[in-house]
Amino acid sequence: MTRAPTTAASLGLLVCHACGLLARAGPHAHDACCPRCGARLHWRKPDSISRTWALLIAAIVCYVPANVLPMMHTGSLFGSQSDTIMSGVIYFWTSGSWYLALIIFFASIMVPLLKMISLVLLLVSVQLRSRWQLNQRARLYRLVEVVGRWSMLDIYVVAVIVALVQLQALATILPGPGAIAFGAVVVLTMFAAMAFDPRLIWDPLDEEHGRAPA
Amino acid sequence: MKNMGEPPHRPEPPDIPEAVAAPKSARSIQLVWLIPLIAVLVGGWLAVKAILDRGPVITISFETAEGLEAGKTKIKYKDVEVGLVNSVVLSNDIKQVIVTADLVKGAERYLVDDTRFWVVRPRITGGDVSGLGTLLSGAYIGLDIGKSGKPTRHFTGLKAAPVFSSDVPGREFVLRGSDLGSLDPGTPVYFRRLQVGQIASHALDKDGKGVTLKLFVNAPYDQYVTTDTRFWHASGFDVTLDASGVKIQTQSVVAMLSGGLAFETPAGSAALPPAAAGAEFRLFAHRAEAMTNPDAIVMKTVMVFRESVRGLAPGAPIDFRGIVVGEVTAIRVELDPVKLQITIPVEVNIYPRRLGSRLVKQRAVLSDRERREFLNAMMAKGLRAQLRTGNLLTGQLFIALDFFPHAPKVKTALNEDVFELHTVSSGLTELQETIASITKKIQDLPLGEISADLRQTLQSANRLIERFDTDLAPEARAALADVRKALAATEHALKPESPLQQDARDAMREIARAAQAFRILADYLERHPEALIQGKKEDEK
Fold first, then answer.
1. Domain A47-208 - what CATH class?
2. On chain B, which terminus has fewer CB atoms closer than 10 Å, C or N?
3. A71: closest CA among A153, A177, A200, A145?
4. Looking at this predicted complex, what is its ipTM?
5. Which residues pair with B334 in a beta bridge?
6. What ranges in A15-152 are assigned the alpha helix state H?
């Protein structure tokens, strides 16, 4: 690739996300408004990398209690019990429902973990202005964005069960602190994925040709 | 959007408006970093709390892990959860189960040397149902806090729940008995039919010759256990069949079903101090045995019988005129190869103190030799042992001591190992012998000859009677007719109008008159005795 592809940024143009109008960047490149609809204009999402980092670090911190603390308290005639995600997986695995165990393991443990690893990978590579596997990384980002919301499945299940199983003396299920932490992990990673600007993946290409965005 | 792939060829389209400058955003960029900060703070606080809340970790070894589940089984004290079983593994020698448990914070102070752990399982005994809740909830580990001050983290679990927890006031006592009967840990202990305690544990003595029981008497009642208190089996039915007949002793219904233990202090020893904790007592078989004076002095004696001892058993009483003074301990058979005689030596224990406390008070320090001499003197006066039937229905025998003045004089050497008390054969045996000799005499009678003689005699008698009939009867009839005639004549003579009667009456009248005259004469003679000589004087008018 001898010639760098033309981008809006490389031409000094801004596009309005709200109404699609192209505008020429003025002298105050970072604080511009769309001349037609008044929406804020920017080359890249503002502070994308630091915001993503902040949300991601919060998510990683929350991931620990999400797995260590109990997700759900089950109280019944036969005694009370607290289950973490992992103990639920182990329970299903040992009781023979290995497919359920696998589903929970992947949806609730592996997916958030992989999501966070992916975001770290993207952030680090962007910050290093790496040009390695650009297409794959772009695909990875899209995958992270799509998969994100499915991790909320656990929270939905706990919420539904807690609402349904309230038989007072016979059986009671209460959400544990782990559920809050897990919800926080999922929400924070979703926000982190939203805060990340995928265009940053491609910026090193422009930079190589000496046309870094202003 | 569809033109995105194509690079625009117009570098500067003239109609693109310039972006409007926006007012400077007041929002600080750094605000977003509050989120991870909060997350770290909350997470850190949780972690610190978890570390601070962590209690001690202990290990308990159990015989079996039945009902124990890692991560589920709880440790409870007074039904309050104080810990959770962490792991259940086999010990290195695979003989035991090592349970590791996390206890709550603050549990350190009761993890001492004698703190006890046991697995609470449903338990149903005759008088007690416990741990039913664990049927549904699964077993849990119970805990009883010890009193020792020595902290430890390794415990040995009990096989069964202790009967009482260590904070219950009361005292523990030790009992030694010959057998366990129907006692079990948890079996109630009764004092005047009131349940005052329980049996804590039992163990076989090391030499296998008895059992040792530990029992616990609850606080207000332990003062009634004095140094002279007697304990006995108060088990369900105590049916004894001995020479005295059938005896049935019962306790309360619970004790009848599950057995029990009772204690009482003999009436004479009321002023004794309460026994110290851990004091040892003897366990008696029944109340009667317990309440008799303790047989401190035992005199081992042997009695040699030459008759059958069928019906005599170890434990049979030695009876002196109705008072039990000892018991049979062993019955043996001995063959004398020289005399070719088989004898049955019966070993007995005689308790001399039962023979009367007055005697004992006078001779409190009677030596064994003195006692033997005393018995020899008694034997010289005719003291003998004799087998007697105690119960005709069952054929139980007992040994009676009594005086037989006509018994041959015997003496036992004083230096024998075991003093021999001589015997006489039993009344029944004598009776048997007498009957046998009578039978023999009857057998020896010449019954054939006797019957022949008898028949002859009877025949001659018959003949005699026949002669009476033929010869004597007519004579007799004639004689009787004469008698009747004579009687008729007599009757005629005695009639009132008969001349004999008339004459007799006249004669009587004459006699009366004569008597009158004689009386007048007598009167006259009394007044005039001289008339006998001078004759009757004429009237002096």
1. mainly alpha
2. C
3. A177
4. 0.75
5. B343
6. 48-68, 85-94, 98-104, 111-127, 134-148
